[in-house]
Specification:
Number of helices: 13
Radius of gyration: 21 Å
Structural class: alpha/beta
Number of strands: 8
Largest sheet: 8 strands, mixed
Order of helices and strands: HHHHHHEHEHEHEHEHEHEEH
CATH superfamily of the largest domain: P-loop containing nucleotide triphosphate hydrolases
Distance between the termini: 29 Å
Strand content: 5-15%
Shape: elongated
Length: 301
């Protein structure tokens, strides 16, 4: 994965307790307490941590593991399995496919739309961007610049226009022009505001009435907000059928453990992760590589 070793350095540091676990120390209550504390500090959360440790204790007993190093190896596999049980592939089955990007303000929705457009355009797909954030003029301007730079086309409406109609028009345009993919930006909305969440339901419903098919509803989350991101995901999942998560800012002060909390509590796959500001720094999520990189610490001498 591009640059993931360096870009996840801060996240790796959060899991640095594993370097201590590589000593051949006995498996006792102190070890379990240390694992629990470290996972919670890494934003895995109390509920998900309890589930992880419960399964880990049962398996370690069955396998008669007796050292912290063997527990570490088992935990690695368990964390991989918790993420690998989901399909992380993006669904392009529509004609055209419509991917709707949702989330609260400031998480990087518009930038994520642009980065996906750049990625798909580089794969020679014809992409149409739908400027569904009609309440923030800068959003359309930002998308227009990206559309021009990556060869995508942009459909936008007047400021304050019904976002559902803009996305519907973009879908019809894409179908007429034989474009394979519509990427729909939406306005940031507080997950606690029921009227805004209802509007989101309408956007998805109307988009499905056109020529295309909504195959992805992608929630963009800022990894640095920790457990608050889990609450955002819960609220959005109550309003729309989320198909996946885009987790941004994993290169910053993120602790990364929110990935496991989402997997354990919500069963929503992480599909893309953001590991930098560059246009190529939004990449497909690979559970095995992610776990290996954040737990990749040298043996102690």
């Amino acid at each position: 994965m591009k640059k993931i070793s360096t870009e996840l350095e801060n996240t790796r540091k959060t899991f640095s307790f594993f370097s201590r676990l590589k000593r051949n120390s006995p498996v006792d209550n102190g070890l379990w307490n240390e694992i629990e504390e470290a996972l919670i500090q890494a934003d895995v959360g109390v509920t998900a941590t309890s589930r992880i440790i419960e399964v880990l204790q049962v398996k370690s007993k069955e396998l008669r593991l007796s050292t912290s190093e063997s527990i570490l190896d088992l935990l690695k596999e368990q964390l991989k399995n918790s993420l690998q049980k989901f399909n992380t592939e993006l669904d392009s089955g529509g004609d055209p496919s419509v991917w709707v990007f949702v989330g609260v303000n400031g998480v990087g929705k518009t930038t994520s739309v642009a980065k996906v457009a750049n990625w798909k355009s580089n794969e020679n797909e014809r992409v149409v961007l739908a400027a569904g954030d009609t309440f923030r003029a800068a959003a359309s301007e930002q998308l227009e610049k990206w559309a021009n730079s990556c060869g995508a086309e942009l459909i936008k409406g007047a400021e304050g226009a019904d976002p559902s109609s803009v996305i519907y028009d973009a879908t019809e345009y894409a179908q007429a022009k034989n474009a394979s993919l519509v990427l729909a930006d939406t306005a940031g909305r507080l997950h606690t505001k029921s009227n805004l969440m209802q509007e989101l339901e309408k956007i998805v419903r109307v988009a499905n009435k056109g020529s295309g098919t909504v195959t992805e509803v992608l929630l963009v989350l800022d990894a640095t907000v920790g457990q608050n991101g889990l609450q955002q995901a819960k609220s959005f999942a109550e309003s729309v059928d989320l198909t996946g998560i885009i987790l941004t800012k994993l290169d910053g002060s993120s602790k990364g453990g929110i990935i496991f909390a989402i997997a354990e509590e919500l069963a929503i796959p992480i599909k893309l992760i953001g590991i930098g500001e560059g246009k190529e720094d939004l990449i497909p999520f690979d559970p095995e590589i992610f776990v290996e990189k954040i737990l990749d610490f040298p043996e102690e001498s």
